[in-house]
């Protein structure tokens, strides 16, 4: 764009102000007019941008004025023009000041949002995902994800093999032998509480363990394929495999039922998201609010004294990867500050896909164990292959928006939902082909009751055998409470191997 010197009369820009020529073009103008560069004829000399002229002049006459002819002005016009000019100058100054202030404020906010000193960062699963731009250091040093984070027992790009399975039915224990390449059902004969502690520790749990005998009359044929018995008393350094020997069958036809946490029991069974109601104290004691720089961003649930399970999508924004800015608020139904716990590590599933929301699961390890109480207790992780009834006693909870586009709820809310089969949820009437096996849908055909923004990462739980099991993690959905657009949840049952693998390997990271 070229610039050329030109004389532009103010009347060109405000044509309505043009008056009759009175020959008295020398009438004096106030000093500020002269200072402003307005000559006695009410015209101003300046460099003009051609494009600006095109915008501000529309008629042929105006175009002529722009092209350099002088315009006669009356004294009154000059006075009013000067006032106009003075006002426009003041306005110009104000707008410049406002623009500068707004720009400075924006830069400041952007810096605060995106820049944070390099501290510990959440790591995706795989070393190959940790590049130079993602400082996954531990303890503030500048190392990238250490090699030990590589999944040792990943059998393919998409599969983990948990060393232990706690099977559907009564948490029947099976142990994987890497040498044999298969799972063994563990016989109850010779089983001692110390064996339970070792298994639970290896799974990443540290507190309560409960083992009991369970008859091996399971309908699941994989339970009856291979058996192992304990062969020795184990030392503190033993791992699960080292104290087991294969046998043809279990001597007493009994396996081991193992529970690693006292989970899924609300303190007092007394007895409320979109279409829900407020929850009472202690009803969902595993529910936590995950705060980033003090602000509620996502929900989560306690699965053991140091672990919280949530959704991967809560952490993948670059600024949300900084572990030190997150806090876990637990033990309260109020969104107001509750007991807060700092976070040591955040892991999200390396296969998480932000386009499809597949594999939307993450784990947070708190810096210190959380002290269990009436209002702070763990939920049960589902058992391997555990199935839940579509019309079972299933609930969602959270502080998320109470309506689509609405506000966070100041108190925890709850709502009962039905599980919806993936076959139906994948149909063209719902989410055609968008529901993977790592997802499940819950809600109602006509909507109304649903999770919403801010509930993400929180639990979908179902009650079975007197315990509350976490079946899903609030993940995504089209809007909130819309007909045929139910909430979509991470299907936790099929991601247990990843969860146990993560719990386990965290303890071996240097
Ligand atoms: C969200 O944005 C979100 N209706 C969570 C749940 C649902 C929709 C959106 C499901 O976090």
Q: Identify low-pLDDT runs.
A: 1-73, 113-119, 126-158
**How many angstroms does the end-to-end distance come to?**
61 Å
**Backbone CA Rg:** 34 Å
What is the global morphology?
elongated
Q: What value does the average pLDDT take?
A: 75
Ligands and ions found: 4-(aminomethyl)benzoic acid
What share of residues are in beta strands?
Answer: 25-35%
CATH architectural designation of one domain? Beta Barrel
Q: Output the strand order for the largest sheet.
A: 14-15-16-19-18-17
Q: Structural class from helices and strands?
A: alpha+beta
Q: If helices are DSSP runs of H or I spanning 4 or more residues, what is the number of helices?
A: 8
CATH superfamily of one domain: Trypsin-like serine proteases
Biggest sheet details: 6 strands, antiparallel, barrel
Plain-language structure description:
The chain contains 8 helices and 25 strands. The relative contact order is 0.11. By secondary structure, it is of the alpha+beta class. The site of 4-(aminomethyl)benzoic acid (4AZ) has 11 residues, from strand 24. 4-(aminomethyl)benzoic acid binds at residues 450-453, 455-456, 474, 476-477, 480, 487.
Question: Can you lay out the helices and strands and say which pair or pack?
Answer:
Blueprint: E1 3-9, H1 10-13, H2 31-35, E2 43-49, H3 50-56, H4 60-66, H5 75-114, E3 123-124, E4 154-156, E5 159-160, E6 164-167, E7 172-177, E8 182-186, H6 193-202, E9 210-215, E10 227-230, E11 244-247, E12 254-259, E13 277-278, E14 287-292, E15 295-304, E16 307-310, E17 326-330, E18 339-348, E19 362-366, E20 393-398, E21 413-420, H7 422-425, E22 439-443, E23 459-464, E24 467-476, E25 487-491, H8 496-506
Parallel strand pairs: 3-18, 8-10
Antiparallel strand pairs: 1-2, 4-5, 6-7, 7-8, 9-12, 10-11, 13-21, 14-15, 14-17, 15-16, 16-19, 17-18, 18-19, 20-21, 20-23, 21-22, 22-25, 23-24, 24-25
The chain binds 4-(aminomethyl)benzoic acid (4AZ).
């Amino acid at each position: 764009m070229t610039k050329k010197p030109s004389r532009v009369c103010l009347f060109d820009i405000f044509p309505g102000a043009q008056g009759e020529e009175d020959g008295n073009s020398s009438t004096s103008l106030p000093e500020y007019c002269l200072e402003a560069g307005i000559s006695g004829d009410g015209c101003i000399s300046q460099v003009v941008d051609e494009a600006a002229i095109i915008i501000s002049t529309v008629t042929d006459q105006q175009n002529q004025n722009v092209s350099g002819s002088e315009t006669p002005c009356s004294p009154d016009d000059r006075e009013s023009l000067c006032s106009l000019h003075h006002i426009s100058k003041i306005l110009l100054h104000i707008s410049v000041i406002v623009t500068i202030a707004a720009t400075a404020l924006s830069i400041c906010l952007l810096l605060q949002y995106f820049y944070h000193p390099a501290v510990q960062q959440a790591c995706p699963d795989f070393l190959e995902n940790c590049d130079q731009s993602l400082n996954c250091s531990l303890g503030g040093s500048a190392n990238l994800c250490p090699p030990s984070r590589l999944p040792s027992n990943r059998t393919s790009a998409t599969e983990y093999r948990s060393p232990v399975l706690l099977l559907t039915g009564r948490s029947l224990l099976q142990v994987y032998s890497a040498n044999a390449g298969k799972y063994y059902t563990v016989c109850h004969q010779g089983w001692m509480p110390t064996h339970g502690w070792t298994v639970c520790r290896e799974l990443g749990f540290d507190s309560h363990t409960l083992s009991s005998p369970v008859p091996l009359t399971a309908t699941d044929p994989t339970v009856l394929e291979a058996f192992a018995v304990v062969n020795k008393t184990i030392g503190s350094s033993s791992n699960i495999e080292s104290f087991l020997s294969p046998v043809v069958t279990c001597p007493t036809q009994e396996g081991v039922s193992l529970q690693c946490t006292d989970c899924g029991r609300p303190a007092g069974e007394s007895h409320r998201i979109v279409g829900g109601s407020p929850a009472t104290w202690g009803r969902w004691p595993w529910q936590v609010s995950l705060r980033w720089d003090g602000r509620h961003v996502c929900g989560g649930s306690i699965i053991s004294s140091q672990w919280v399970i949530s959704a991967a999508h809560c952490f993948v924004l670059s600024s949300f990867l900084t572990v030190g800015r997150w806090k876990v608020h637990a033990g309260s139904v109020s969104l107001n500050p509750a007991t807060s716990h700092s976070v040591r590590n955040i892991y999200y599933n390396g296969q998480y896909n932000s386009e499809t929301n597949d594999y939307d699961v993450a784990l947070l390890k708190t810096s210190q164990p959380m002290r269990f109480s009436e209002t702070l207790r763990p939920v049960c992780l589902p058992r391997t292959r555990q199935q839940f009834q579509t019309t079972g006693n299933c609930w969602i909870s959270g502080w998320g928006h109470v309506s689509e586009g609405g506000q966070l709820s100041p108190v925890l809310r709850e709502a009962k939902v039905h599980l919806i089969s993936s076959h139906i949820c994948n149909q063209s009437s719902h989410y055609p082909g968008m529901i993977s096996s790592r997802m499940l849908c819950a809600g109602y055909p006509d909507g109304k009751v649903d999770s919403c923004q801010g509930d993400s990462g929180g639990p979908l739980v179902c009650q079975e055998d007197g315990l509350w099991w976490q079946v899903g993690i609030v993940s995504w959905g089209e809007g909130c409470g819309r007909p045929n657009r139910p909430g979509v949840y991470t299907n936790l049952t099929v991601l247990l191997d990843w969860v146990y693998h993560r719990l386990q390997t965290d303890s071996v990271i240097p």
